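Saturday, quiet lab. Running sequence design on the structure tokens for the scaffold JK sent over.
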């Protein structure tokens, strides 16, 4: 008797928004990336937490900013409050392979503006540009 190994069918799932015509899904992905990026910069989350979704250039920028936060925290002893709220998500579909988004991240002591560019690459949706103001 022979046994056959059956793997589940490939669903074609990729990271990031699969369909740009679903604004709810795009908004949820933008909110998640924004929240994680701010938590990385505040050194509340590991630097590689977004490595599957962002390009290496964005990962190194986040790591550099997290290192600055660690250095500042070592001299001042300040520990940020954990609460972060993402509001005002806006998206612009540039074409079928590119989405640009912005949002406001509210922290107890300040608010920040984030802008990001999502591009559909061979391996799925990736954040290729992330600006934190």
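Result came back. Writing it out in full:
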């Amino acid at each position: 008797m022979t046994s056959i190994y059956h793997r589940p069918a490939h669903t074609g799932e990729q990271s990031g928004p699969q369909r740009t015509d679903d604004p709810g899904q795009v908004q949820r992905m933008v909110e998640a990336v924004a929240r994680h990026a701010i938590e990385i910069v505040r050194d509340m989350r590991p630097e590689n937490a977004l490595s599957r979704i962002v390009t290496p250039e964005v990962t190194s920028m986040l790591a550099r900013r997290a290192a600055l936060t660690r250095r500042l925290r070592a001299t001042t002893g300040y520990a940020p409050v954990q609460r972060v709220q993402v509001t005002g998500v806006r998206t612009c579909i540039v074409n079928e392979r590119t989405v640009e988004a912005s949002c406001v991240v509210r922290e107890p002591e300040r608010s920040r503006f984030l802008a990001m560019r999502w591009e559909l690459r061979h391996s799925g949706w990736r954040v290729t540009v992330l600006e934190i103001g």
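Notes for JK: Residues 5-16 have pLDDT under 50 and may be disordered. Helices lie at 23-41, 56-76. Ask whether to fix the surface positions before the next round.
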